[in-house]
């Protein structure tokens, strides 16, 4: 039996990954034009809250992967607007 298969540890790791991704989004918001920042922050917060009660590990992994894609897209877009 692997230590990673422990539900408690797996949950802890997933929550840590979600928090890290949320912080990455908020750091990226700082690159946005000031007139757009609050709206972007609200949108990010809303998306994370919408899925905050998700407990299925496979779905959380999917959401994290989607979040990573969106993070990269947002980063590219914000760099183009500078």
Automatic annotation (TrEMBL):
<dbReference type="GO" id="GO:0005739">
    <property type="term" value="C:mitochondrion"/>
</dbReference>
<protein>
    <recommendedName>
        <fullName>Complex 1 LYR protein domain-containing protein</fullName>
    </recommendedName>
</protein>
<dbReference type="Pfam" id="PF05347">
    <property type="entry name" value="Complex1_LYR"/>
</dbReference>
<dbReference type="InterPro" id="IPR008011">
    <property type="entry name" value="Complex1_LYR_dom"/>
</dbReference>
<feature type="domain" description="Complex 1 LYR protein">
    <location>
        <begin position="17"/>
        <end position="71"/>
    </location>
</feature>
<keyword id="KW-0496">Mitochondrion</keyword>
């Amino acid at each position: 039996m692997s230590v990673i298969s422990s539900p408690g540890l797996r949950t802890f790791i997933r929550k840590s990954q979600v928090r890290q991704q949320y912080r990455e989004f908020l750091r990226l918001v700082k690159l946005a034009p000031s007139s757009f920042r609050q709206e972007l922050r609200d949108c990010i917060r809303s998306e994370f809250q919408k899925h905050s009660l998700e407990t299925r590990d496979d779905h959380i992994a999917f959401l994290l992967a989607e979040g990573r894609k969106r993070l990269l897209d947002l980063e590219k877009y914000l760099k183009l607007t500078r």
